[in-house]
Amino acid sequence: MTGGRSAPDHWLIDLDDTLYPAESGLFSHVSKRITARIARTLGLPEEEARVVQRRLWRTYGTSLRGLIVEHGVDPEPFLADVHDVPVEAILAPDPALRDVLGALPGTLHVFTNGPSEFARRVLARLEVSDLFDGVFDIRHARFVPKPDEIPYRCALEALGVDGARVAMVDDSPQNLAQAQRFGMWTAWLRSPHSMAGGRAGGSVALGEEHELRPDVVIARLSELPAAWDAASRGTPPRGSAAER
């Protein structure tokens, strides 16, 4: 990295396994309900449904998008069913997260492949709802998920800025690669527990096939303010993509 980067006007922050800790296991509850829903919808044993789930995720970005395209599934009952998980029992208020988010310059937005009502339950439980200006969810992009370019275009159009004025945080390197194509500054939250970018999601983790790399790699969200501060000064923090 050469030179500093101007503070972003907006932050797009992923929800699942990013805004809340991946090790909480919350998204694994959602994933299991997705498997069960696919099994019921397609009349498959759960073992076969998991194979289908994985294929659809790789091909379309989410299982739901694949079910819509290949089977004409109604998205609303699917979303309601698979997100009927015990958010309040799994997560807890997170004062430290408030401090992290409050240290970031610009306006914060959730940018998720899930529904807004689930995102708002998570924000409320973490007690950070007031720190976010809004949620860009799967409906906002007409059920087209990240990393397709459509949700990024929809978000930027709604914000009225180009990508150079936006920073994005996600646990999925594929999602960040697309963000970089729009000129966004990117931070990869690389948790080993992540379903999309850790050991649990190794088949979709960053590999040599990806031509782009995130600007920084962090192990926990608490590292984000320091990583951004270093980027604004043009100094790559330890462990950043720029050092590799």
Element layout with pairings:
Layout: E1 10-13, H1 15-19, H2 26-42, H3 46-60, H4 63-71, H5 75-82, H6 87-90, H7 95-102, E2 107-111, H8 116-126, E3 132-136, H9 149-159, E4 166-170, H10 173-181, E5 185-189, E6 216-218, H11 224-233
Any overview of this molecule?
The protein folds into two domains: about 10-20 and about 90-244, HAD superfamily/HAD-like (Rossmann fold, 3-Layer(aba) Sandwich), CATH 3.40.50.1000; about 25-80, Orthogonal Bundle (DNA polymerase, domain 1), CATH 1.10.150. Helix content is about 45%, strand content about 10%. The chain has eleven helices and six strands. It has a six-stranded parallel β-sheet with strand order 3-2-1-4-5-6, with helices on both faces. It is globular, with a radius of gyration of 17 Å.
Keywords summarizing the entry:
44% helix; 2 domains; DNA polymerase, domain 1; 6 strands; single chain
Strand order of the largest sheet: 3-2-1-4-5-6
If you average the pLDDT, what whole number results? 90
Alpha-carbon distance between the two ends: 11 Å
* Number of alpha- plus pi-helical segments: 11
CA-based shape:
globular
Helix content: 40-55%
Task: Give me the CATH superfamily of the largest domain.
Answer: HAD superfamily/HAD-like
Beta-strand percent range = 5-15%
Task: List the quaternary state of the chains.
Answer: single chain
